[in-house]
Amino acid sequence: MPEVKSMFREVLPKQGQLSMEDVPTMVLCKPKLLPLKSVTLEKLEKMQQEAQEAIRQQELAQKEKQESTAG
Fold first, then answer.
1. Where is the composition biased (Low complexity) (predicted)?
2. Residuewise pLDDT in 10s, the chain (71 residues)
């Protein structure tokens, strides 16, 4: 890699303190909290539970109907 010549010459003091400029660094932000389940997923689960409950009700009604006709 070719060296880039700077128009400024680096000067280091022979005695005393050496100070450096702050170098900007990357700052991490707080993580965003995401819901474990999305609203859409919750709606789908609710619809599925309602459908399963409706099927259970139909099965119970069918059983009762069969028992009443058999008995």
1. 51-60
2. 456 666 778 777 778 776 777 778 888 888 888 778 888 999 999 999 999 999 999 999 998 888 888 76
